[in-house]
Amino acid sequence: MDLVTRYIAAVQRELPEDKRDEIGRELNANIRDQLDALAEQKGELSDDDSAAVLLQMGHPRDVAQQFVPPQPLISLSYMPVYRYTLYMVLGILFVLQIIASTSAWLHSQFGLLLYLKSVASGFIGDACLAFTAITVTYMLLSREPAATTNATPNWHPRQLPAVGPGWQTISLQNIFTDLGTYAFLLVLIWYPLWFTPEQLEAQRISLAEPARQFLSWCTPVLLAGIVLNIGQLKQRFWNRPLLIANVVLNSALVLILLYLAVNGPLLDIKLDELPNADEWGAMQRIITATLLITACFPAYELGRDLLRLKRLKGG
To answer: Which residues cross the membrane (predicted)?
Structure first.
């Protein structure tokens, strides 16, 4: 068995079984053509000449991957969305674990090391489950036929948006940051439903009932924000309808945050069960100031989008 036959056999071992014969014949013809061209120049070829040609072609595994590129676990077309989904979900899980561990710490007053252990162990368990679920989901999506994953139906160049200023492009980072914020707020609002009445009664710090009731009424606003972000994923380009929807959403968020800052405490703290009542009262004031500062962010986006609407109208 000469070097060429051995080389082709080595390449075929790296190929799927249904493609070995076809690619083997093509590769054999290619190598024989190169050897014939070299023989015309040098005359009879030795094994060293054949080996030089094969070395120039590369390792059999590399050659096989040129014919059949390795299929990634997750398609490259899904990779940006997959990455941001991981960041969003893991971020939410980490904050929720901080809240749960802090609540347990305030209830039982165990040591700092046990608190850190509770945060780490709880987050690692949830993160492993979330990572596995998200990865398997995108892996299954990547295994769909190319006709359903890569093709874009009813697409035409005339449907492309006009060239505009750079701000009209919506970045994936902004979309997933907003998605994560809305999802976290929804979980935070409805988090008490996961507890029994006895567990809720035992908590020393929780959302005040008026605040929680008001936030539950605001759930449609947060759901509308999620729907808007999903729409932005489909069309990552600011136009008048998207800007108007964002203006309405940010207006609602500003009003919600101002209402929470002005009307009563956000947290229900059982001061009779906790030491340093003066410090907890100061924390309530800090929370109020934080709500007012947080309201500045959607207020800024509200003014920004109103200016953008004016520019689009003037253009």
So the answer is: 84-106, 118-141, 175-194, 214-231, 243-262, 282-303
